[in-house]
Write a structure and sequence with these properties.
Blueprint (H helix, E strand, L loop, with lengths): L4 E4 L10 E4 L2 H13 L6 E4 L10 H4 L1 H10 L9 E6 L15 E7 L2 H7 L13 H14 L2 E9 L5 H12 L6 E6 L1 E3 L2 H9 L13 E4 L2 E3 L2 H18 L7 E4 L4 H7 L10
Helix pairs in contact: 1-3, 6-8, 8-9
């Protein structure tokens, strides 16, 4: 998986096309050790949950190798908190031989046709992210190792023929056993995407939403509620038909209001990072 990164030791103007890595990893690990011993209502720590990836640079940072044993040990983790690793990579070989208690490995997935729209390729055509099949196989390896596995299918994009695209994906994926699948629909932070694209000279997205986007939650703009309910309800029915009841994963919605959760039949508030 070819990428470019910067190791930063001081404040610099970052290039958005290159990932940022900080070299003070020991400070982060020590902060986690202290947090695990504190009394707090927070029950989990997400690594790579937002705008980052937990395993992409594990070979450089070694975060998972250093943190997973802390969460698995009752002495260093007396309150039983859990670590959530979210990734678009397939780098699960770094997890081999590590304890599995209190660690969740969550894979960011989508049908190939959808992932190809926003995950991107390098100028020579090489995929920036591993294929969906590679990530599904990595999910199965994590199951075999004994980790709790989850999937995050986000963003759901209603391209032409999306019903058959997602239905085929779930039918194919139903031989896997994620404990939870979290769904999210495409949204954006107001005009932020356009402003950043103009500032950094980024290429326009290969897909553009055709429907009307509205401000419904904070500063995000997204599809109107009725359309979100329709999409989520259809996706829920696909999952229910694909997995037998005894193996069916728990379903949850990410950053969604109660009215939509209830109307779509996915009332759970337990998102991916909980």
């Amino acid at each position: 998986m070819a990428t470019s990164y910067q190791i930063l030791t001081h404040r610099v103007k970052a290039d958005p096309s290159r990932h940022i890595l900080f070299d003070n990893t020991g400070d982060f690990v020590n902060a986690v050790k202290a947090w695990l011993l504190k009394r707090t209502n927070r029950t989990s720590l997400g690594l790579g949950i937002d705008c980052s990836d937990s395993l992409l640079y594990e070979g450089v940072t070694g975060y998972a190798k250093r943190l997973i044993p802390l969460f698995a040990d009752s002495e260093t983790n007396p309150f039983g908190r859990h670590l959530v690793l979210l990734t678009k990579s397939a780098n699960v070989h770094y997890l081999e031989g590590l304890p599995t208690g209190n660690t969740v490995v969550s894979f960011s997935l989508n049908p190939k046709k959808i992932a190809d729209l926003f995950e991107g390729r390098f100028p020579d055509g090489l995929r920036i992210t591993p294929s969906i099949d590679e990530r599904l196989n990595a999910s199965r390896k994590c199951e075999w190792m004994g980790f709790e596995t989850r999937w995050r299918i986000d963003p759901i994009i209603s391209v032409e023929g999306w019903q058959s695209v997602y239905r085929e994906f779930f039918q194919k994926a139903s031989s896997f056993g994620p404990k939870r699948i979290t769904f999210g629909i495409y949204c954006q932070m107001g005009t932020g995407l356009r402003i950043f694209s103009q500032k950094w000279g980024l290429r326009p997205m290969s897909w553009q939403p055709t429907g009307r986007l509205v401000k419904d939650m904070g500063s995000h703009i997204q599809l109107p509620r009725a359309e979100r309910v329709e999409l989520y309800s259809a996706i829920r029915e696909m999952v229910e038909k694909a997995w037998p009841p005894s193996m069916r994963p728990e379903l949850a919605l990410c950053k969604e209001i109660g009215e939509v959760r209830s109307a779509s039949g996915i009332p759970s508030r337990r998102c991916n990072c909980e």
